[in-house]
Write a structure and sequence with these properties.
By secondary structure, this protein is of the alpha+beta class. The protein contains three helices and eight strands.
Length: 198
């Protein structure tokens, strides 16, 4: 058996293609001027004379020219200036056939909130801290103060918190500075005297 080369296969395909297309190029079709109008009912190509079926569809074509046939089609059509009269007179042609019903979400009525204005008694005023400074001892870096607070004598140092009620912020030569937790403010007390504003 002889093997076919790539060139011989290509040449055979080329010759087949040329033969196929040249036959189609030289074939003559019958021209049907009314093929567009009757394309649903008639085949596109009608060799020779019109068949009996085509004669049934176009009885007025026999013996008439194309212009006469076109004029007869125009005269038999509906006048475009005539008013439109629908088959069902009450039907709106622009109304949608299917209408989608939109259901609104239920509205929630909010009840007004009644705020009871009960006059709460004002909190009692915070009593200011009362400290009596008996003395201060020590050097500048490590000073101690001897104080009397709520009838208790005690020795305090800088940054010390006393019974959770106040903090010693600073101890100077002649006074101490404390921060009251309840009042949230600073107080300065001098040695042997009352509170000094400042």
């Amino acid at each position: 058996m002889q093997r076919l080369s790539l060139k011989s296969i290509f040449a055979a395909v080329l010759v087949f293609t040329l033969c196929f297309f040249t036959v189609g190029a030289f074939a003559q079709d019958d021209y049907d001027p009314f093929a567009d109008e009757f394309s649903d009912d008639m085949p596109a190509e009608m060799p020779g004379e019109a068949t009996a079926e085509a004669n049934d569809l176009m009885p007025s074509l026999s013996g008439k020219s194309e212009q006469e046939y076109m004029d007869s089609l125009i005269s038999s059509s509906v006048d475009p200036r005539a008013p439109f009269s629908p088959r069902v007179p009450d039907k709106d042609p622009f109304k949608a056939i299917v209408e989608k019903k939109v259901i609104a979400p239920p509205t929630r009525v909010q009840q007004p909130i009644q705020v009871s204005r009960v006059n709460k008694p004002a909190p009692p005023p915070v009593k200011p801290i009362k400290i009596f400074v008996s003395g201060i001892v020590g050097n500048e870096d490590q000073r101690l103060a001897i104080i009397k607070f709520e009838n208790n004598e005690m020795t305090v140092s800088k940054e010390q918190i006393v019974e959770g009620k106040f903090k010693v912020v600073d101890i100077q030569n002649d006074r101490i500075v404390v921060y009251s937790n309840k009042e949230q403010r600073r107080h300065t007390f001098k040695i042997g005297g009352d509170e000094k504003d400042g």
